[in-house]
Amino acid sequence: MNKRLKAIEQLVPKDRITADIGTDHAYLPIQLVKTGKCTKVYACDIRRGPLAIAEENIKNAGYTRQIPVILSDGFEHVPMDTDCAVIAGMGVYTAVGILEKAHNRLSLLKEIIVQVNDDVPVLREWISDHGYTILEEDIVTDKKHTYMIVVFSADDHSGYSEEEILFGPVLLQKKDPVFLQYWQARKQFLEQVLPMKKPAEKPAVVKEIEMIAGMLES
Ligand SMILES: C[S@@+](CC[C@H](N)C(=O)[O-])C[C@H]1O[C@@H](n2cnc3c(N)ncnc32)[C@H](O)[C@@H]1O
Predict the structure, then answer these.
(1) Which end of the chain is more exposed for a tag (fewer CB within 10 A), N or C?
(2) What integer best gives the mean pLDDT of the chain?
(3) Is the separation of the CB atoms in 128 and 165 below 8 Å?
């Protein structure tokens, strides 16, 4: 379990029947059962290869009864008693594609915990456009990478501002040191690459720099 997975584990409420979608090695389901946080976790993946490894790891940990392994594209074969879902370690468009195909399922879940490896604002914009509610967020640095985790539910929300979509509504409230460091570094990076950008790309970069500067000053 690395820092990223530990942070995700922390965000799963106790006693949820959880589905880990795109489980790969099943480290997260194993940890959730090992710590006593969950008594049942579905380890789901679209590919047989990762599932075979997951199955082996689950067997070695002694949790075959608590962690069923399910071959599933997104939520397709995820049992209906699931009340919390985790989608982690993927690109944003893969994660959003999974969510897009699962609209009818989302209202049955108390929390959907998503950690994407790139472009988190695309995920927040998708949540905002669908009128869903961001419940919690976290940011962690692990081996020089910074990861943001977004927890949302299908409860109604009137939508998020441009600032909330870029920075995260909860992270913006907390403004913890990892968050501030990340955005200071991001601003520096954007300022360095700005002169190399094509004219058509410059306005978006300038706008992001201005938004970051405004947020850091407020
Ligand atoms: C990089 S691994 C992430 C593993 C783990 N969730 C983590 O955060 O460390 C991504 C996994 O997602 C799976 N995956 C990709 N698209 C999927 C889909 N539509 N449904 C289920 N699993 C999917 C891949 O097969 C792969 O095992």
Answers:
(1) C
(2) 96
(3) yes
